[in-house]
Design a protein that fits this description.
Elements: E1 18-20, E2 30-32, E3 37-39, H1 47-51, E4 52-53, E5 63-65, E6 70-71, E7 76-78, H2 107-111, E8 118-120, E9 125-126, E10 131-132, E11 137-138, E12 143-144, E13 149-150, E14 158-162, E15 165-170, H3 174-183, H4 190-195, H5 197-201, H6 205-210
Parallel strand pairs: 2-5, 3-6, 4-7, 5-8, 6-9, 7-10, 8-11, 9-12, 10-13, 12-14
Antiparallel strand pairs: 1-3, 14-15
EC number: 2.3.1.-
Keywords: Acyltransferase, Repeat, Transferase
Protein name: CatB-related O-acetyltransferase
Length: about 210
C-alpha cells in the first residue's frame, strides 16, 4: 500500500497541528472519511468539541464528512441544536429554563426547525473560520472560502464565498464536472490512488478517466 495510513492520528512528523480526523473523532453522530484532516495550531484532537457546535445526540442529526477533505483552522459546523422555534412572536427558549416556563410549550414548534443532516462531500476544501449552517449539503470537490457562512447547499466543484455564501465561480465546466463525478477517484483503492496521483492532481480529465 502506498501513502499514509488513514488511521494514524497525526500523519505528518514534527507537525502535530495536522490530524486525520477519522481516528480522532469518536462521536457516534459524526462520520468522517479516510484522509480528511483538520489543521489547527492548538492541535486537531478537540475537533468535535471545538468545531462541531450544538450537536446533541437526542436530536438525531449527523455530521457526515467525506474522504480527502481539508478543513482549516477555525471552521465551524453549526448543528440543529442551535435552532430556536420561530413560529411565534418570540424566539426566546423560555421552556429550557423550567420553573413553570416549560408548561404549555409545544415541542413541534421547535422540531419543525430541524433541517436534517449536514453532509460534506469528498475532496472538499473548507477555509479558515468558515461556518457551515445546519442541514447544508456541500458537493464533491467544492471550495468554501475563508470566513464564509454557508446557509444553502453548494454544488459539486463550486467555489463559494461571503455571508451568506454564494457561488462565485465553478471550478470546471458542467461536462467536466459530470465526468469527475463519474470517475469518483476518492472511492478507488488507496494503492490505485497512489499510482495515479498525477492524473488526480492534474487537469486532464481524459487521463483521469483512462485510469478508472
Amino acid at each position: 500500500m502506498t501513502g499514509p495510513n488513514p488511521d494514524i492520528k497525526h500523519p505528518i512528523a514534527m507537525h502535530p497541528r495536522v490530524g486525520f480526523l477519522k481516528g480522532l473523532v469518536s462521536a457516534p453522530n459524526i462520520e468522517i472519511g479516510d484522509f480528511t484532516y483538520y489543521d489547527d495550531p492548538d492541535g486537531p484532537d478537540k475537533f468535535a468539541e471545538k468545531c462541531v457546535l450544538h450537536h446533541y445526540p437526542f436530536i438525531g442529526d449527523r455530521l457526515i464528512i467525506g474522504k480527502f477533505c481539508a478543513i482549516a483552522e477555525g471552521a465551524r459546523f453549526i448543528m440543529n441544536g442551535a435552532n430556536h422555534a420561530m413560529s411565534g412572536f418570540s424566539t426566546y427558549p423560555f421552556n429550557i429554563f423550567g420553573h413553570g416556563w416549560e408548561e404549555g410549550f409545544d415541542p413541534q414548534t421547535w422540531s419543525r426547525e430541524i433541517r436534517g443532516d449536514t453532509t460534506i462531500g469528498n475532496d472538499v476544501w473548507i477555509g479558515m473560520d468558515a461556518v457551515i449552517m445546519p442541514g447544508v449539503r456541500i458537493g464533491h470537490g467544492a471550495i468554501v472560502a475563508a470566513k464564509s457562512v454557508v446557509t444553502h447547499d453548494v454544488p459539486p466543484y463550486a467555489i463559494v464565498a461571503g455571508n451568506a455564501a454564494k457561488v462565485v465561480k465553478m471550478r470546471f465546466d458542467e461536462f467536466t464536472v459530470r465526468r469527475l463525478l463519474a470517475a469518483a477517484w476518492w472511492d478507488w483503492p488507496v494503492d490505485k490512488i497512489g499510482r495515479n496521483l498525477n492524473a488526480i492532481r492534474g487537469a486532464d480529465i481524459s487521463r483521469l478517466e483512462a485510469a478508472v
